[in-house]
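Put briefly, the fold is written as integer tokens. The lines below illustrate.
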Amino acid sequence: MKTFSKDYLVNELGLPYDSDCVIEDTIIDKERWSIVHRLIFKDNDKAYRVYYEEPATEEQEMQPWEDEDEIECEEVIPVEVKETVWVSPDELHCAG
């Protein structure tokens, strides 16, 4: 784990929205009032995973990490994963 200041993530790296450092930003959960994201970003040749929430509607006022001064991020590395998908025989025949 590495702890970053919110100021560094938001103002220096431009996270979570306006940044060339973002590798992946995936919605992982939807709650009543918020949408939860998993964010993978790069900093100094290392990649980190962090989570943030944004409002589910225009009526909520919420900023990512708004109540936090320091954010713990986990260092991550890329790993290739073999995936099995289910297709009809016709789809397989057309692809081959």
About this structure: The beta strands are 2-5, 22-30, 34-43, 46-55, 70-76. Residues 2-95 form one domain. The first strand starts at residue 2 and ends at 5. DSSP finds two helices and five strands in the chain.
